[in-house]
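Follow-up to my post from last week.
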Amino acid sequence: MKHKTFFWFFLPTALAMLVFIAAPILSILMQSVFLPHEQVVIEVESCGPFGCSTTTSVDQEATAKLWEEAPLGRFAGMQVYFDRGHLAVAEVGEAWSTTQSWGEFFGTLGNLPLYRALAFTLTYTFVSTPLLIILGFAIAVAVNNLGPWLKGPVIFFSLLPFVVTQLIGSLILFWMVDARGVIGTFIQWIADDPDLSLKASTPLTWIMLIVYGVWNSAPFAFVVFYAGLQTLPQDTLESAMVDGATRWQRIRYVVIPHIMPLVTFVLLIQLMDNFRVFEPIIGFSAEAHATSLSWIIFNDLGGETRQLSSAAANSVLTIIGVSILLAPVLVRTWRESKAKT
Amino acid sequence: MASSVVENRSFGLRLGSALFVIVWLLIAAFPFFWTLWGSFKVELDFFSILDWTDALTGPRTEQVYGSTFTSTAYEGAWIQEEFWRSVINTSLVCFFVVCTSLTIGTLGGYALSRSGFRYTFWLLIAALIFRAVPPMTLVAGYLLPFFELNMWGHLPTAVIVLVAINQPFTLWMLHSFFEKIPKDLDESAKVDGCTQFQAFRHVIIPVMWPGVITTGLFSFLLAYNDFAVTAMVLSKENQTMIPKIASFLGTTQTEGNVMFAVAASVSAVIPLFILVMFFQRQIVSGLTAGAVKG
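User reply:
Got it. Predicted complex:
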C-alpha cells in the first residue's frame, strides 16, 4: 500500500486518537502547572450617619480581567505537585526525619491522599492480577475435562461477571455482602459475630474489593486460556505420557509452556485494567477505607468546586505510574522488533 | 490419538473437575439470579435483619402488596425516576459509538494490515500505549476545553469521546482479523485495475463481517458499560443508565430508593444477558483474537 493511500485510510482514526487521547494528555500537563487566579479583593469604605465601616468585596471586573489576560490561570510550576494533596514533599521529608520505624513512616504516608490511593491501587493490581490468572487457568483446565455438551452453558454463565458493567457487578455483590444481605449474614454466621460488617473494616474492605476484582476478570483469563488449551500439541502430550510423565508433570512441562504467551497477554491487559480500578470503589461505597488513583481524580473533578489543577496533577502522576508499570513489556517488544530487523 | 488422552482421565479427576466447575458457576451466576429474584421484593425483605430467607419468601412484601412479588421498584425506577430517559440515551450513545468506531476503525485496521512499512508496527505500539492510559485521566483533560467550547453535557460529546477511547482496542482487534483475510484477494483486484479503495469496497467488505460484528460487540459493551466518561461529561438530563444508577445511590436514605437502584441494575443487566446468549461465540473469539498472536 502506498504511503498516500495509507494516510487517507488511517487519517480518521488517527485524528480521533490525537484529538481525544494525545491532546488531553497535553491538556492535563498544562493544567497541572497552573492554578486559578485568586479573586481580587477590594476594600470599600462606606460612611453613613453613624460613622464609617469598611467592607471587603470581590472586584468582579478586575478578576474577570485577570482571567482574560491569562486564561489558564496563574503559573504555579511544580507547586501543585509538591503540595500536601499530591506528592507532599515537605510532609514526607518531615515524616522521614521524625518517625522511628518503617511502620510508623508508612503509617504517616497512609494519611496523605496520594500515597493512600497509591497503596491501594498497587495492592489491588499486584494481588488480584496473579490470583485471577491462577483461577482462570484452573477453571480452563477443569472445563476442558468436562464433556463437550456442557461447555457451551458453562462458558455462558462464566462470562456474566466479566460482561456485566463493573459498577453494577460491584453493586450486586455489595448488596449481598451488606450486613443484612445473604452473603453478609452467611459471613457473620461463619465468624460467629452478629455485628461483623465488611464495610466497617479497612482490611476486610480491601479483601472484598480484591475478591470482586478476581471475580470480575477471572472469566477473561479463563476464556483466553481455554482457547489456548484447544490448540495443545497432542503429539507432545502423547509422547510425554509414553515417557511416563504424571498428570502434574504434563501440565507443568507441556501445558504451561504452551499457554505462556497467553499468560503474558492476560497479564499485560489486566495490569492496565486493574491499575485503573475505580468503579468497584464507587459500587462498594468504599471511599472511607480504600481510594485509588482514578478515584482521587474523580473526586477532584466532582462536586461544586472542580479542582482542575489538582485533578490534572493527579492524572499526570497516574500516567507516569502506568508508564513505569508497562515499561518492561514495551522495552521487551522494542528489543524483539529490533532483533527481527 | 486424542481419544486415548480422554480415556486416560480417571473418574476421580473428572469428578473433581466437575465439582470445581459447579462451585465456580455458583460464584459466577448466583449473584445475578439472587438479585433478579430480590428485585421483586420490598427493601425490608431483600435486606432482612431478621432472617435471610425473607428475600426468598417475601413475607413483608406479601403484607404490603398482598403478593410475594411486586413490581413497585421497577415502576419507581422507570416511571417516577424516569429511568426510561437514560435507557433512550444509552441506546443512542451505543448506536452511534458502534457505527462510528467501526467505520473509522475498519478503514484504519485495514490500512494497518495491508501496509508493509515499518511505521505500522509503531502505530500499533502507540495504540497500545493509548490503550493503557486510564480514561479517568483523559476526562480530567477534557473538562476545561469542553466547558470553554460549550461542548460539555451533550450526548454527541460523549459519543466522540467514547469512540476515541475505544479506537486503540478496535484497531488492534480489526487489524488481527484483517491479517487473517488473504492479501491475494485485494492484490488480485488491484491487478485487475481497482484502486485500493475499490478493492476494499468490493472485495474486502463482503468477507469482513465476522470480524466486524465481533469488534462491534466489544464497542457496544464499552459504550454500554462506561461510567467514568459518561458520569463526568454528560449533564443530568442526558445521563445514560450507569451514571443514573449511581445517582440513585446518593439518595438511599428514604425507603424504597435502594430498591429503585436494584430494579434499575437488573434492567441494565438483562440486555447484556441476552447479548451473551446470542453472541457467545463472537465474544469468545474476540477475547482470544488479540491473544492468538501472543
